[in-house]
Fold this sequence. Notes:
Layout: E1 9-10, H1 12-21, H2 23-38, H3 42-86, H4 93-101, E2 106-107, H5 114-144, H6 150-183, H7 205-234, H8 240-263, H9 269-283, H10 290-321
Helix pairs in contact: 1-3, 2-3, 2-6, 3-5, 5-6, 7-8, 7-10, 8-9, 9-10
Amino acid sequence: MTILANVGVPMIFIHWPLMVCALVPVIVVEALLIRRWLSLSVREAFVGVGKANLFSTLLGVPLAWLAMFALEFAVMLPLGVAADKWKWDLDGPVWQALAFLFSIAWLAPAEGYLHWMVPAAVGLLLVPCFYLSVILERRSCTRTWSTADPARVRRGVFAANLASYALLFILACGWAGFELATKGPRVDRAQAGQIPPANARPGTPHAKGEVEQLRRALGNIQSYLADLEGRLRISTAQTWSHEASAAQHALGNIRIEIGTLKQGSQSVGNLESWLADLEGKLQGASAENWSQNASAAQHIVGNVRLELQTLSRSLQAVSDEQ
């Protein structure tokens, strides 16, 4: 999971094997129900239901995942581009909930939350799988039980699938609930790269050490920004070529410190966006456009400082709780 967390989690590699593992108990449940409803023999029920479920599992599950992945791509990609262009704040709970619902096919690399996001995504993926399974299994069963009333077969297949998928959904909810109850909504990594105990609380040595590490990172970023600001103030179009290398080095150090903040699960999306704009202004500066670019760079540095103040207040609130 740690490796996949760097690029996200393609749920097809988790959801599909789980559905294959559930194939036998699902066949048993559905066959017993349909045999009772349609007055079939044991052999007829198990052969028809087994063939239909094998077909829907091998074909329907990946098709349902592909449909959800296409929906995720169609919604999240334009939303991300628009958010970057117009500086939307997508860190609110409503946006985060919508982003999760549209991203269940390929989960975002939110490593501290994947312990419950994976089972939650498994449960939500059952919804498109259910409808596609009903469509595929109805076609298969009406052909297998050609002497039975097609309308009764369709109703029976729908009801049997509703029962089996409800059971699977309850199991997925239980899995997600167990992860939340035992580990909490977020699992923080210790400084050594290990996961702290699930019952860790703010005020333990681990939590205090993490806050101190994040404070040092904030202090380092402030120092690098001060150096960068000074170079922007004293440099001119003629001297910028000499100062550019040192300024770029300062930006590189800032990015390293931002990596430390991200390891502490701090939200640094706005900070990274402003730094990307700042790098663009500095890299594009020349004798012809220096005045315009330097002014814009100074404005961006001010915005970066505002973001740092927000992060500093958040850390102070955590420290006060301890």
